[in-house]
């Protein structure tokens, strides 16, 4: 039984890795499941057993990349001097990831198009929980105004995600990026407590 579980996990890992490459190169719609499964020596049955369908595989790939994005954002904020600066640095780092071709194609373009509202993705909700904790602390420390934690968390997270969407879809992402970051920062600063 243990070997079977290990084999299933190995197959999942192979399929996610191959799908990640295929989705980045050809997009979700253009990626061939027959080619993808053959590339890793598996059948479509293994794909369906592990993920249900091609959309389930996309969800697994998005979750993997999304968790890597969260880690990259945490690293970007790790050297910030204050909790507020950390929150802003993480949001800005998330927006900057729109320039990463893999993030752009899989998470920002194909993810919402084929998986629906990002607010329903488990990986986005995990990020939201981290944001809620940060905002609750900032309110308790009287850095932020007294505001509903859930509302502020959803608005700030949504603003970062939508800014990244805008950057990724713009004709000139490099030009749009600083504009998106400046607007995100200005919007976020509206939450600061006036001293």
Automatic annotation (TrEMBL):
<keyword id="KW-0804">Transcription</keyword>
<feature type="domain" description="HTH tetR-type">
    <location>
        <begin position="9"/>
        <end position="69"/>
    </location>
</feature>
<dbReference type="Pfam" id="PF00440">
    <property type="entry name" value="TetR_N"/>
</dbReference>
<dbReference type="InterPro" id="IPR001647">
    <property type="entry name" value="HTH_TetR"/>
</dbReference>
<protein>
    <submittedName>
        <fullName>TetR/AcrR family transcriptional regulator</fullName>
    </submittedName>
</protein>
<dbReference type="Pfam" id="PF21351">
    <property type="entry name" value="TetR_C_41"/>
</dbReference>
<dbReference type="InterPro" id="IPR049484">
    <property type="entry name" value="Rv0078-like_C"/>
</dbReference>
<feature type="DNA-binding region" description="H-T-H motif">
    <location>
        <begin position="32"/>
        <end position="51"/>
    </location>
</feature>
<keyword id="KW-0805">Transcription regulation</keyword>
<dbReference type="InterPro" id="IPR009057">
    <property type="entry name" value="Homeodomain-like_sf"/>
</dbReference>
<keyword id="KW-0238">DNA-binding</keyword>
